[in-house]
Design a protein that fits this description.
The complex is a heterodimer. Chain A is of the alpha/beta class. A 6-stranded parallel β-sheet of chain A has the order 3-2-1-4-5-6, sandwiched between helices. In chain A, helix 6 packs parallel to helix 8. Chain A is elongated, with a radius of gyration of 23 Å. Chain B is an all-alpha fold. Chain B contains 7 helices and no strands. In chain B, helix 2 packs across helix 3 and helix 5 crosses helix 7. The longest helix of chain B has about 40 residues. Classes of the chains: A alpha/beta, B mainly alpha. At the A-B interface, helix 2, helix 5, helix 6, helix 9 and helix 10 of A face helix 2, helix 4, helix 5, helix 6 and helix 7 of B.
Amino acid sequence: MGLLEKFLQIDRRWIFLAIAIAVVVPFFLPMGLPVVVTKPVRDLYNAVDAIPPNSEPLFISVDYAPSTIPELDPMTLAVLRHAFSKDIRVVALTLDPAGYGLAERALESVAREYGKERNKDYVYLGFQPGIAAVVLGMGTDIKGVFPEDAYGTPLSEIPMMDGIRNYDQIPLLITMASSGVIEAWVIYAHQPYGARIGAGVTAVMATDYYPFLDTGQLVGLLGGMRGAAEYEELIKHPDAGVRGMDSQSVIHVLIIVLIVLGNIAYFGSKKRSQEAKEPAA
Amino acid sequence: MRRQFPLFLCFIAGVFMAVQYFIPHPSVQVWYERILDWLQTLLAFAFLIGTVSLVRLHYHKIRHKASDRGYSFVLFAGLALMLAFGFTNRSPGSRFDHMFQYVQVPIEGTMFSLLAFYIASAAFRAFRARTVEATLLLAAASVVMLGRVPIGDLIHRSIPWAANWILNVPNMASKRGIMIGVGLGMMATALKIMLGIERAWMGGTD
């Protein structure tokens, strides 16, 4: 067996080790790579920034499960920090049962950072089953879908929710999603009721939602950890997104190098085996 | 009657939900909101059905002494604990919250993070430029991967530009085509269900 064949059959645990090193080392030796802000992220930032302080609230739907925390949690935190730093009120909800605790944790931690009070500066609606039914129902009567907040307080007793009846009183709704729930927001909230929707998605999902930007069905889009890092740059509060960019850069380069090496070894060994056959023929 | 009544209900509900979109009259909207309430109630029961189905599956595994029944015991323990904690207190800092934050979150995160290792290994072994199409895919993937991380900007300014072009032009064109196709397919399927041509949803095979 030649060197190229041996390389192609390398024990995959070596690759796993290389990946582990590529992920971990940049966290201890940060490279400080610059993050350039792209248009979809800037558009979402501008849409949040345009909401007047202490007026109608920004809605954030935390539609992801713990498996996608590394990509989507930094986005949620960055958007919440942006909102609270500008005294924009926030209403959070989730359409994913596993998102209940994640939304609560994000909301409570950022609210504490900025000294915000529950039911005065922010409201947590919790989870309701039935994605399409919830999104459609919010178009007619939010209090009909969420009669009380996540802690059992009737929405009619929360002054911040006075006058908030449907999408007409929501200046912007941002869904942080790890599934196709974005399409439900676009189809059932934007199309029939004209709701303004922004989104944050995992990197692998981002390509699916570019067409919605061009049509104006999404006002902006945060794609993967890069999207979070760009938003953190805009709010001048670098955190997990920016920190993760070094690791992600090294990992992407490593995967490309592995693909290139794999191809060189594959075609090299193929050529050699053909050359070895030809004299015999 | 057992088959015709559900078909009739499905037809009426389907036609109503399609037609109400074009009739903003209050009397229609009242029924629309009522149907949405029913829908939400029905979907809440789906969680119950899911739980019952899961319990039955694992109960059978334990009863028939399946080789992997140990996992079923873990499932029952987790289910019982989360139910007990959830019914007593779900506020931040509660036992329910701790079980979620310190057990479920790390478990799911760990499972998902394994993808990075397997993707790298699979890319090394399987991503080959055997054909023109595969080569194009390989080149596009490499450009987008580099263009979506800051190191791409450092290597060359044109890499992020090329990545954005791939996302905004060929990707968007193909996605639009797929989405329009999916939309038409959804409409056709909805019509088939409403008209009783497609009946698999009733539990049969026809």
